[in-house]
Amino acid sequence: MLVNRSNKRKQPPEQVSELTTNRLSVYLRCLNELDAAGIQTISSQGLATQFHLNAAQIRKDLAYFGEFGVRGVGYYVKELRRHLRKILGLDRRLRVVIIGAGNLGLALADYPGFRQEGFEIVGLFDAANEKIGHESRGGVPIHDIKALRSVAARERLDIAVIAVPAPHAQPVADLVVAAGIKAILNFSPGALVIPEGVKLKSVDLTVSLESLSFYLAQGDLDA
Amino acid sequence: MLVNRSNKRKQPPEQVSELTTNRLSVYLRCLNELDAAGIQTISSQGLATQFHLNAAQIRKDLAYFGEFGVRGVGYYVKELRRHLRKILGLDRRLRVVIIGAGNLGLALADYPGFRQEGFEIVGLFDAANEKIGHESRGGVPIHDIKALRSVAARERLDIAVIAVPAPHAQPVADLVVAAGIKAILNFSPGALVIPEGVKLKSVDLTVSLESLSFYLAQGDLDA
Question: Does the pLDDT value for residue A223 go beyond 70?
């Protein structure tokens, strides 16, 4: 029996936590793999077993956005994948700029995972004259940071990735906000002040290592 | 009046969430800055105002580990910094290896933030013959991944960073576990299967971008 598979929202998106959307990203990655392997349907339990996830959690997360499962069948892989891409806003190409053409910025510019999901790395921006006009190994051009505002005025830029040394992060964030970009992924350590209406997500690499350090220190205490 | 400043634990460390330890890392970063600027004492409110944090949260987080504040004074910067470094296990040098000498691995190897906090990047490991024997721009040597186990047997390795393409991540994680390394920071997409007693932390760069994409898509719906 087919159940209602409309993707009518049950709750306003404001109530969907970032942990939920992070898990949707993970499910999407799994569905991509299944689709590439020619798998057409999968149950929440099958998805959980194959990718080391939690079946009840999968059902709960998806239930926020509609009823995608078919009783006795599970999920249609291609269909659920399309729904998740739409929910995550990936049904259009997202245009990304990276500020800071240092090691990390260059690595991010050429990171194959971004392109696979439909993110388009439009360009790198830097303040160093010896970098401007060159490009990353993968061919992403490096522009003058001073040109950010005019580039943003000319073409739509969705996300700015900040990968500059800590002291430059806030001034760069101010430039990004002034250029009208509404979403920032920040790799620089420290808190940034961002006006309402701009979404900030931070990835602090040192914090990640330190949480492992904490775990190791506890292990030593227990031993 | 001096209050008791012993750092006797009030709760077993098992109950301290990763969000708490992540915040401790952020506080440590702030204290480093204050110390470098020659500031000797600061209140939780001062810390909160200066670094855009929450004063009540700071007091609550620190209370897990002892009473560090002095009434009428606040925190002694150097002392709290030393306590936090100890709690986070940073009072000894942590030896880190990076598996995967691609763009991301090379960028991480030379990332200045790691060294500042006392992490020692011992080496990069890769399977590609043309990379083995070379080094990163910053001088981190690239070893044969086959040598990981013997290096680990010879010297203490605390943390392995995995920065390899997705299909290689699980076999590499298995090698890391077999080498006796107890903490993994994984940058490859997808879930890894890790035995109990090994701590895994994952940074999925695509998931981070997709949570911004989700936010932008909601914004479009609202508009």
Answer: no
Q: What is the pLDDT of residue A22?
A: 86
Query: What's the pLDDT tens digit per position in B168-180?
Result: 999 999 999 999 9
Q: How many CB atoms sit inside 10 A of residue A20's CB?
A: 18
Enter the CATH code of domain A94-207.
3.40.50.720
Amino acid occupying residue A68: F
Q: Report A:152-191 residues touching B (Cβ under 8 A).
A: 158-159, 165-166, 182-185, 189-191
The DSSP code for A92 is: S
- Long-range contacts (CB closer than 8 Å, 24 or more residues apart) made by A41-47: A41/A70, A41/A73, A41/A74, A41/A75, A41/A76, A41/A77, A42/A74, A42/A75, A42/A77, A43/A73, A43/A74, A43/A75, A44/A69, A44/A74, A44/A75, A46/A74, A47/A75
Q: Is the pLDDT of residue A110 over 60?
A: yes
Percent of chain B with pLDDT over 70: 91
ipTM: 0.82
Residues 40-59 on A with a CB inside 8 Å of B are 51-53
The pLDDT mean for chain A works out to: 88
Q: The whole model's pTM is what?
A: 0.80
The reply to whether CATH 1.10.10.10 applies to domain B13-87 is yes
Instruction: Write down the domain spans for chain B.
Output: 13-87, 94-207
Closest approach of A25 to chain B, Cα-based (Å)? 6
Q: For residues B100 and A197, what is the distance between their CA atoms, to the nearest angstrom? A: 38
Q: Do domains A13-87 and A94-207 have the same CATH topology?
A: no
**SS3 of residue B25 by DSSP:** helix
